[in-house]
Amino acid sequence: MSERTANRGGPVLLGVRHHGPGSARAVRAALEQCRPAAVLIEGPPEADELVPLAAQEGMRPPVALLAHAQDDPGRAAFWPLAEFSPEWGAMRWALAHGVPVRFIDLPAAHSLARGDDEETADDRETADDQETADEATGGQEARSGAEVRIDPIGVLAEAAGYDDPERWWEDVIEHRGSGGAGADALAPFAALAEAMGALRETYGDGGHDRDPVREAHMRLRLRAARREFGNDVAVVCGAWHVPALARRTTMTADRQLLKGLPKVKTAVTWVPWTHRRLARRSGYGAGIASPGWYGHLFSAPDRPVERWLTKVAGLLREEDYAVSSAHVIEAVRLAEGLATVRGRPLAGLTELDDAVRAVMGDGTDAPSSLIHDRLVVGEVLGKVPEDAPAVPLQQDIDRSRRTLRLKPEALERELELDLRKETDAGRSRLLHRLRLLGIPWGEPTRSRGSTGTFRETWRLRWEPELSVRVAEAGIWGTTVLSAATAKAASEAAGAAGLAEVTALAERCLLAELPDALPVVMQALSDRAALDADVGHLAQALPALVRSVRYGDVRGTDAAALREVATGLAERVFVGLPPACLGLDADGAAEMRGHLDATHQAVGLLGQPESERQAGGKQLRARWAGMLRAVSERDAVPGLLRGRATRLLLDDGELGDGGAERLMGLALSPGTPPTEAAGWIEGFAGGGDGGMLLVHDARLLALVDGWLTGVPDAAFTDVLPLLRRTFAEYESGVRRTLGELVRRGPATAPRHPAGDAPDAAVPGFGPGLDRDRAAAVLPTLRMLLGIGQHGFDDEQPDPSRPADPSRRADPSRPADDLTGART
């Protein structure tokens, strides 16, 4: 077999690992020596026409051949290639020397129909790490938990006395510097072919029961190439397949194995790939553990240890680690010393990690995760030429992103958008439309700055699988706008629940799909008319109100949405009071969420703006009436009565002493302690509940008086509820409350609004002392970064006593300290 593999008079079989720098260098050295008339590569034959694109300047690995079924784009397969992949090196060598290239693996038309080659994109996301055997065979077989497959690399490593197959392969193959020269260029392939031949004689197909079909097709393609180019051809394939290709079989037997295979129409193109997707832990069966490290070994064959540790030092300095040149020198010495002690030809990642930990990490693993993510794996994103074949939808996406200056990147980054700017508004539309199509290039996230509706924050990251999603979404249309419109209309027709349709309406407004909105609105009206569940209605209302608000902000006509939202709110108002009766603890907690969501929605929907002012006030008034009905009904759980009271208080709907009256009733001796504790949780729960008690002495006194009167037998029942309520307060608020309770009742209660001026809070005067207030203006101007604004004449005169006549008149409109309207 070794004679046949290396013999100049017959096909040269170069068995490789599909992603390995040593294999790639060895392949190029072998091709330089043999100078074949044609190069055959393991891969889908449908990609033969795409080979010339690999020579273009716009092609930058890592890239992948993507094949998908035309009638079902979700059935797709990838053949990834990195710069250090032997197949890529063979292809580039052939293109540089004008040598024809042919792919010889089983056609994608058959493998996709059988579902036995690469996993689909969805399967790839959830696949478990596969056996190292796949690294030698290409990893392009389907996996089954019931199959038992040998690990050829593991068997050879064990025979050589290694306990780690990865380390054995690196020492024997990947750490080879030049890959051989002259007559020795073919020696590694002959030795590997002989080893694989022994394994195949012992284990047969090794549990890879689909390999015989693939190998039969490879032999047929090899025979065809020999008829076309003669015996002077080179074959680059997984080392596991070399014995099968060298074995003598008849053409009839090989064709018999291929007879009756299912077939589908396929499309093939190049797509960008990433180092992270080359990693084995991503689910790629032929993946490697350290694509960034392998890329470094390929690009820096001379002094790789020194260059790698220099990269590590640069990365750590960027992250504010104190790393000097002396650290690099000492780490190099330690890594090389460890390699010598362990009998390795070159320091590998294990030795380098140990050296970094000891020298640069001060004996800790702190920098290890950073180095692994940024260097060992890396986030390199490939690039394909613009004239590569693509579905029309992909072409429209590319045109749009170039116009909007959006660049696909492998590294995750945040993008802040100001929707008042035309370019940012276009970016927002594109990203929202892609999300609706199931192409999550970007995910919206909470902005760290403004929370206004004119700003959006996106987290962007381009994943190779999105190319498959684009192909799948191509069934909806040839442009992003038409495809998103068609899919939105289809989802509206098939939506099962009201909340689902309201969320879709929100997405249509964000994506600005005017042609889809009428269809969605009709579906929304139909669902709303048929759904009588108050919980469903309350759950759907916030998204619908947000849609109205987005329509206002983005200049979209949202009148129909506002009408539906108002009608939905009215139905919630009618249905909520009876829905709050007789609920258990879990039901009350869920209904509390509906109360809060509806309250917020009514606040947005009923904002008194322009011609909607009267209607907005009426809506809020009806909502306030519903809250009063809930807060005063004894059959409603205390949690909901307390929450309704709090919402009324926040909106100023209770008047003087209203909150004290309702709290006094809820905390009266006749109320069960657990019910009273639930009332307190609803009223004073949340992060701002503590501040309410801090600033309202009467409410705090009522809570304190009730709590001290809880019977001992009931205290253990109410304690968990109270702990849950007060645990939400900030530590400073809890400390202040404790101090207020320790000091006891205030010497004078706060005066409610409308009381006589002489009923003042201790420490506060009856009016505004303008001279004292103006004294802080210089400091405020400095902190806020504002100009003088005519405040100079407001500077107080220390020698002049305060003038009571200059104090604020409560009957005047609210003015600022300068007399200008706020």
Describe the fold and architecture.
The chain has 822 residues and is of the alpha/beta class. The chain has five domains: 12-116 and 152-274, no CATH class; 302-375, no CATH class; 394-512, no CATH class; 532-654; 665-745, no CATH class. The chain is built from 37 helices and ten strands. The chain is elongated and about 105 Å long. The relative contact order is 0.06. The model is unreliable at 1-8, 117-147, 179-183, 608-614, 747-764 and 789-822 (pLDDT under 50).
How big a fraction of the residues is strand? 5-15%
- Helix-strand category: alpha/beta
Count the helices. How many? 37
For the biggest β-sheet, the strand order reads 1-6-2-5
Outline the fold blueprint:
Blueprint: H1 2-6, E1 12-16, H2 21-34, E2 38-41, E3 63-69, E4 72-81, H3 86-96, E5 101-103, H4 108-114, H5 121-126, H6 133-137, H7 152-159, H8 165-174, H9 187-203, H10 211-229, E6 233-238, H11 242-246, H12 251-258, E7 266-272, H13 275-278, H14 291-299, H15 304-318, H16 325-341, H17 349-360, H18 368-377, H19 392-403, E8 413-418, H20 422-436, E9 442-445, E10 455-460, H21 466-473, H22 480-494, H23 498-511, H24 517-530, H25 534-553, H26 559-579, H27 585-605, H28 613-631, H29 638-650, H30 658-666, H31 673-684, H32 689-695, H33 697-708, H34 712-726, H35 731-743, H36 770-774, H37 777-784
Parallel strand pairs: 1-6, 2-5, 2-6
Antiparallel strand pairs: 3-4, 3-7, 8-10, 9-10
